[in-house]
Write a structure and sequence with these properties.
mainly alpha
């Protein structure tokens, strides 16, 4: 019975630590999902703004348009870069948390085996 209580306490402590460690991964997932959309939205706005330079000759309009369109691609690239970095960080943290869970299970089993082997008698403090 006492070993069961120790096991439950270890499981509860591991679950608490897992929850504490996984707290920021939702924010990283949100950034990974929304950053490309924001980048594309800003690219669209800048692409529409690039037509403002068209007012004179045809070649001047082409030059202004090409310049505006080339600068309009920066937000999309930045959004994709931010999303890829956020997703990679999230996956790294989730792998580390999974390794932590495995280590906690192994430590719990090792503790229970050690306690069962030595048949320690505990004094229960109220």
């Amino acid at each position: 019975m006492r070993l069961l209580l120790v096991e439950l306490a270890c499981i509860r402590a591991a679950a608490h630590e897992h929850q504490r460690l996984a707290r920021g991964t939702t924010l990283l997932a949100t950034v990974a999902a929304t950053a490309p959309l924001m980048g594309l939205w800003l690219t669209e706005i800048l692409m529409l703004d690039s037509f403002k330079g068209c007012g004179g000759e045809r070649w001047t309009c082409y030059a202004a348009l090409v310049h505006g369109l080339s600068e309009a691609q920066y937000p999309a690239a930045f959004g994709l870069t931010a999303a890829i970095l956020a997703w990679c960080l999230r996956e790294h943290f989730l792998r580390a948390i999974a390794e932590f869970d495995t280590e906690m299970r192994a430590a719990t089993l090792e503790l229970l085996n050690c306690l069962a082997k030595h048949r320690l008698h505990w004094v229960v403090v109220p």
